[in-house]
Amino acid sequence: MARYVALLRGVNVNGITIKMADLKETIAGAGFANVKTVLASGNVLFDSDRTDTAAVKSDIEAALRERFGYEAWIVLVDQPTLARIVDDFPFEADRDGWHPYVLLSSDPRVLDEMYGAAIGLALGAEEIRLGDGVLYWHVERGETLTSPFGKLSGKAKYRSTTTNRNLRTLRKLV
């Protein structure tokens, strides 16, 4: 049995409000075991003996659409992969005044595209680095939405395939 992490995109922002108890109930109702939510931003841990991750992802998105009536998108990773992602964070994770972020995607080509686009931006002190299936981002507090990379990553064309988490949140999920 594998332990998975489902990271929901855009939950409890922009008018999509989901109570974590309802989210937990929905995932369990879709046939997954030992379901636990972490924080109120759409982070779900669960167990499954299913190995077809694309089908698991699809089933969860369908259950979310049906229950909550929105176009649900998730990024699905197993817990050992998430642990590796956290361990590989390349910047000073606990630097005072900075946010350590990880962008994850259901389509790794999107991260390559974002990284390529970011190379041409005037990033200043902001840092990005392409990792194994993720994009690491280090940005000063208060600059997340207004920094050059923050503006790039917030574009509508990336919404259906990417999600961003603070490294501290990912540590809790591990």
Automatic annotation (TrEMBL):
It holds the Pfam family DUF1697. Signal peptide: none annotated. It comes from the Bacteria. This is DUF1697 domain-containing protein. It comes from Rhodococcus olei.
